[in-house]
Amino acid sequence: MKNILFTLGIGLLLCSHSPAQFAKDPILNLQSEDQKLLNWGYYLGFNQYDFQFEYEDDIGQDILVDTSFGFNVGLIGELRLNEFLDARFEPGLLYTQRILGFPGFTTEAEAIREVRSTYIRFPLLLKVSTKRFGNWKPYITGGVYAATNLGSKEDSLDDNSSGEFRMKSNVYGYELGFGIDFYTEYFKFSPSIRGVFALTDELVPDNDPNSPWTGNINAMRTRGIFINFTFE
Q1: In this record, what's one Pfam family (predicted)?
Q2: Res 23 pLDDT > 70
Q3: 91-115 pLDDT, tens per residue?
């Protein structure tokens, strides 16, 4: 699935605009767009979130994760540092769903946990661009983020013994990505691909330290792929 997302993203980057964008001497659109000190915009996109588990003991089968596509939406505030560097703040909202399959159980009710998460994210990123080529400009981006999981159930007294899978509310991590700015007649359009990696352990262990669900988990961290479409 990650290979499919990567291929799809490359296709979006290459096919977002007509071949005229790559002509030798195109008519330049929005020539003063990158001279502004402050720039604003918004983005829409979709994601695929996964979990990375670390185990106390390698004594059995891994926990299975069935992923699905979610969606992202947010705003952009950009501060121009120089011709090639921009600082960006991209607060946003995303929804994602993951289904966990725990080994060693005989019934579906015990083995399956559905994890639905709604994150409010606050990424602070550095965008590094190349020289503009006609009406397009490649870039890479990276930085850190803080997020709050509104569906964490961290304060719930119930745990997996009652069918409740709990996660921590606050998450911190980093993201890396690349994209292309396309300068149209009226706005700048930027498809991009991002990799997102949590640094903090998100698991709230069950009340029983020997729980068959969480007893052998040392840490659980989110990782994911974003494909965003930005309009500025």
Answers
A1: OMP_b-brl_2
A2: no
A3: 999 999 999 999 989 899 999 999 9
Compute CA distances 90 → 40, 87, 110, 147, 201, whole Å: 10, 10, 39, 12, 23
**Cα dihedral sign for 53, 56, 57, 59?**
negative
Contact 151, 116 (CB under 8 A): yes
Q: What is the pTM of this model?
A: 0.82
Q: Where are the domains of the chain?
A: 2-13+36-231
Cβ count within 10 A of residue 52: 12
Residue at token pair 């190349």: 130
Question: Which position has the token pair 């994890």?
Answer: 115
C-beta of residue 183 within 8 angstroms of C-beta of residue 29: yes
**With DSSP H G I counted as helix, E B as strand and the rest as coil, what are the percentages for the chain, rounded to 5?**
10, 55, 35
Nearest to 192 by CA among 99, 134, 123, 120: 123
User: What's the Cα-to-Cα distance from 220 to each of 55, 110, 179, 199, 200, rounded to whole Å?
Assistant: 9, 19, 29, 10, 8
Query: For 2-13+36-231, which CATH class?
Result: mainly beta
